[in-house]
């Protein structure tokens, strides 16, 4: 599969341009709020909706799209499942093995990964420090993207903590494909873990047990990708300790702004407007 980019075909002004976020569950997603705020700021009369789509429904959903569709945002469990359904993917999505964005046009589907640069921007917005080591909780597609972001920032040692080490194998392999070749190990929850400069969590708030929360004790920066429900146990602990904290909302806004740029061609996208829209729901 090549890594060619796609320039969307111009929209027919007589027909609405449509975009959406897909996933399951999807009712909690703030993506419609962010994208609609961006469209209003850009003066675009575009539509953006949320659709409950599971992994086994994705192919049929994509096949049912017509030429009015411009772009899709993807969340769990679709970021890996979409790859064989695309015509092209960008280099980052290829390395990570996950795409959270699909740009549609000229009868083609091109996958992108905005989670990686979005995570880098979210971290740098909160801290200019360097972080040599990190513990990453969870072994799914989002964890793979976050590990690439960490390697982009110079992190050289990453410990992945997963319920099932074998199921995290593809995530570990993806992290090791980063050009900087970070050292990546994996352990199961309940194992003893080394102290690390950064703690990154991609697990649900319901899985953040007291033992998990205790891992935040020595980290200089805590990054929790969950933004609903809020605050998560990890967020509460990090904020109580006054540690540097990066939230899932920070990531959501930055990666969504990059999606808007890909789908609309807006440069730069209206990041401040999108953040203001998201803060109404905090």
Helix content: 25-40%
- Name the shape in a single word: globular
Strand order of the largest sheet: 2-1-3-5-6-4
Alpha-beta classification: alpha/beta
For the record, the CATH architecture of the largest domain stands as 3-Layer(aba) Sandwich
Whole-number average pLDDT?
A: 93
State the CATH topology of the largest domain.
Rossmann fold
Output the CATH class name of the largest domain.
Alpha Beta
Low-confidence stretches: 1-10
Helical stretch tally: 10
SSE order, one letter for each helix or strand: EHEHEEHEEHEHEHEEHEHEHH
Overview of the molecule:
By secondary structure, this protein is α/β, with parallel strands linked by helices. It folds into 2 domains: 17-114 and 251-279, Rossmann fold; 117-247, Rossmann fold. The protein contains 10 helices and 12 strands. The strands form 2 sheets. The chain has a 6-stranded mixed β-sheet. Strands 9-8-7-10-11-12 form a 6-stranded parallel β-sheet, with helices on both faces. The longest helix is centred in the C-terminal third of the chain and has 17 residues, at 248-264.
Task: Provide keyphrases for this structure.
282 residues, alpha/beta, Rossmann fold, 2 domains, six-stranded parallel sheet, 34% helix, globular
Summarize, please.
With 282 residues, this protein is α/β, with parallel strands linked by helices. It has helices spanning 31-42, 58-63, 91-96, 115-126, 141-152, 169-176, 210-214, 233-241, 248-264, 271-279, and strands at 17-23, 46-52, 69-74, 88-89, 101-105, 108-112, 133-137, 157-162, 183-188, 198-201, 221-224, 244-247.
């Amino acid at each position: 599969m090549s890594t060619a980019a796609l320039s969307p075909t111009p929209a027919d002004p007589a027909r609405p341009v449509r975009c959406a976020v897909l996933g399951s569950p999807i009712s909690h997603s703030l993506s419609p709020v962010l994208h609609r705020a961006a469209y209003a700021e850009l003066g675009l009369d575009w539509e953006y909706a949320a659709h409950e789509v599971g992994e086994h429904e994705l192919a049929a959903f994509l096949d049912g799209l017509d030429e009015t569709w411009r772009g899709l945002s993807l969340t769990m469990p679709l970021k890996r499942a979409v790859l064989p359904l695309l015509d092209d993917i960008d280099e980052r999505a290829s390395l990570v093995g996950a795409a959270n964005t699909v740009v549609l046009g000229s009868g083609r589907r091109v996958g992108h990964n905005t989670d990686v640069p979005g995570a880098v921007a979210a971290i740098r917005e909160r801290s200019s420090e360097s972080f040599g080591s990190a513990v990453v909780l969870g072994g799914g597609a989002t964890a793979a993207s976050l590990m690439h972001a960490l390697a982009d920032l110079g992190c050289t040692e990453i410990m992945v903590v997963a319920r099932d080490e074998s199921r995290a194998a593809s995530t570990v392999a993806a992290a090791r494909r980063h050009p900087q070749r970070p050292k990546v190990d994996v352990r199961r929850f309940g194992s003893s873990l080394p102290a690390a400069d950064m703690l990154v969590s991609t697990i649900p708030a319901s899985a953040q047990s007291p033992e998990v929360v205790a891992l935040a004790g020595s980290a200089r920066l805590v990054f929790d990708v969950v933004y609903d429900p809020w605050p998560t146990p990890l967020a509460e602990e990090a904020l109580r300790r006054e540690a540097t904290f990066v939230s899932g909302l920070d990531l959501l806004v930055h990666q969504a702004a990059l999606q808007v740029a890909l789908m609309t061609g807006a440069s730069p996208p209206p990041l401040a407007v999108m953040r203001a829209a998201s803060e109404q729901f905090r």
